[in-house]
Amino acid sequence: MPIIVTLDVMLARRKMRSRELAERIGLSEPNLSLLKSGKVRGMRFETLARICAVLQCQPGDLLVFEPGPEPPTDDEPDAP
After folding, report:
1. Using one digit for the tens of pLDDT, what is the confidence trace for 43-68?
2. Is 15 left (phi over 0), alpha (psi -120 to 50) or beta?
3. Fewest beta carbons less than 10 Å away: which of 25, 41, 53, 80?
4. Contacts of 18 (CB under 8 A, 6+ apart)
5. Which domains does the chain have, with CATH numbers?
6. Helices (H), 6-44
């Protein structure tokens, strides 16, 4: 996916552990881990806003667009 989640970088800059962030934004640690690894298809703006408020950053500090080929979705058949 061309959207890269750089939450781990911002956590390191703020010297904060994932556990603390999860507690402060009201998200479970496993869900935050999935978010950090980029294994989610989407995120609520409310969640993004809470993360930005706690980390004192902007959404652009957490998300990076890198153009490239899109992987096939579950709805699309694989290319032959």
Report:
1. 999 999 999 999 999 999 999 999 87
2. left
3. 80
4. 11, 29, 32, 33, 36
5. 3-65 (1.10.260.40)
6. 7-13, 18-25, 29-37
